[in-house]
């Protein structure tokens, strides 16, 4: 319930929706994706499969989707939509249907993301059907055999169009290459000795520079196993300023510091994660800036 309320209060607070959803999942909450036949504008609670409540993500999660289109969708949904053309007849603009398709919100219709996007874009060239709203427009040409998206492509598309993914964490697809470079996952920090050098990596969640910290910057990274807290002293920050402030994924070499059950990595060097990103999609032009948020700044 708390996670649901936080999602519906965005943008606010220290953590972005991806981290709120991740924390809920880690605590055993069943989280369900945005779906044209089940979601409301806000995230909601539904009966779960284990007798507890499940968290259903709302349409507000879909980037670029206007509330007026969602209002039209909900007003005519009834017992559910059986086609994309039915949404068009309900007054939902074609551009909004494309947004929903890109966000993978048509799974209840048995459509993959690519199938839904293809069908949505076809609506742009077809006039609305006046009567049989549950029927798709007749195809004007043979439909192509659409290639199946890889898991990495699906996750990139989720982050690009919803800001999070329930399928996997982006760092999952970089892990083999990171391990080859000696980079450890966040959960392995428990096994590293105090003051031992190590290398960590993750998606940047927050960057903080409190006025009382003498110029020290605190960075939180997230990978598929948990979070890593970096401490960046001013001379290191100035040396790697552009990378620290601009990169969405950081690779950091530093010294582990353990005190009273708290683990930090005292940063000494930052490396470029860019060459690893094409491993997610097999696209050499893949850039984290195209699908990951910049992280939250508290300077």
Oligomer: single chain
By CATH, the architecture of the largest domain is named Orthogonal Bundle
Please state the average pLDDT score.
90
Shape: elongated
Helix content: 25-40%
Which class of secondary structure composition applies to the elements?
Answer: alpha/beta
Spans of at least 5 consecutive residues whose pLDDT stays below 50 are 131-135
Q: What is the CA-atom radius of gyration, in angstroms? A: 22 Å
- The helix tally amounts to 10
What does this structure look like?
The chain has 299 residues and is α/β, with parallel strands linked by helices. It folds into 2 domains: 161 residues, DNA polymerase, domain 1 (Orthogonal Bundle); 129 residues, OB fold (Dihydrolipoamide Acetyltransferase, E2P) (Beta Barrel). Helix content is 27%, strand content 21%. The chain has 10 helices and 10 strands. It has a 5-stranded mixed β-barrel. Strand 2 and strand 3 form a beta hairpin. Helix 5 runs antiparallel to helix 6. The longest helix is centred in the middle third of the chain and has 12 residues. It is elongated and about 65 Å long. About 2% of the residues have low confidence.
Provide the descriptors you would attach to this structure in a database record.
alpha/beta, DNA polymerase, domain 1, OB fold (Dihydrolipoamide Acetyltransferase, E2P), 2 domains, five-stranded mixed beta barrel, three-stranded mixed sheet, 21% strand, elongated
Short description:
The chain is of the alpha/beta class and 299 residues long.
How is this fold's topology laid out?
Blueprint: H1 2-8, H2 17-26, E1 30-32, E2 44-47, E3 53-56, H3 67-75, H4 84-89, H5 94-102, H6 113-123, H7 151-162, H8 175-180, E4 183-184, E5 197-208, E6 217-223, E7 226-232, H9 234-239, H10 241-246, E8 249-259, E9 262-271, E10 296-298
Parallel strand pairs: 1-3, 4-5, 5-10, 7-9
Antiparallel strand pairs: 2-3, 5-6, 5-8, 6-7, 8-9
Helix pairs in contact: 5-6
């Amino acid at each position: 319930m708390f996670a649901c309320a936080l999602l519906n209060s965005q943008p606010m607070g220290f953590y972005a929706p991806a981290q709120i959803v991740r924390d809920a999942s880690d605590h055993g909450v069943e989280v369900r994706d945005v779906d044209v036949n089940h979601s409301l504008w806000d995230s909601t609670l539904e009966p779960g499969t284990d007798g507890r409540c499940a968290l259903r993500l709302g349409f507000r999660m879909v980037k670029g989707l206007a509330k007026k289109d969602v209002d039209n969708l909900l007003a005519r949904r009834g017992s559910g939509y059986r086609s994309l053309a039915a949404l068009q007849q309900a007054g939902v603009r074609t551009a909004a249907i494309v947004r929903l398709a890109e966000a993978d919100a048509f799974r209840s219709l048995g459509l993959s993301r690519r199938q839904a996007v293809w069908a949505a874009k076809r609506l742009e060239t077809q006039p609305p059907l006046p009567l049989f709203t549950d029927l798709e427009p007749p195809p004007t040409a043979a439909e192509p055999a659409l290639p199946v998206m890889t898991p990495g492509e699906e996750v990139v598309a989720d982050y690009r169009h919803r800001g999070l993914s329930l399928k996997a964490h982006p760092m999952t697809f970089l892990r083999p290459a990171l391990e080859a470079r000696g980079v450890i996952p966040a959960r392995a920090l428990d096994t590293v000795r105090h003051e031992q050098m190590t290398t960590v990596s993750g998606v940047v969640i927050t960057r903080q520079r409190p006025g009382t910290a003498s110029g020290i910057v605190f960075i939180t990274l997230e990978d598929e196993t948990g979070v890593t807290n970096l401490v960046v002293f001013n001379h290191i920050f100035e040396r790697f300023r552009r990378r620290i402030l601009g990169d969405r994924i950081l690779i950091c070499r530093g010294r582990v510091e353990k005190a009273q059950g708290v683990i930090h990595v005292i940063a000494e060097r930052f490396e470029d994660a860019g060459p690893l990103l094409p491993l997610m999609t097999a696209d050499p032009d893949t850039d984290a800036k195209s699908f990951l948020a910049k992280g939250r700044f508290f300077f």
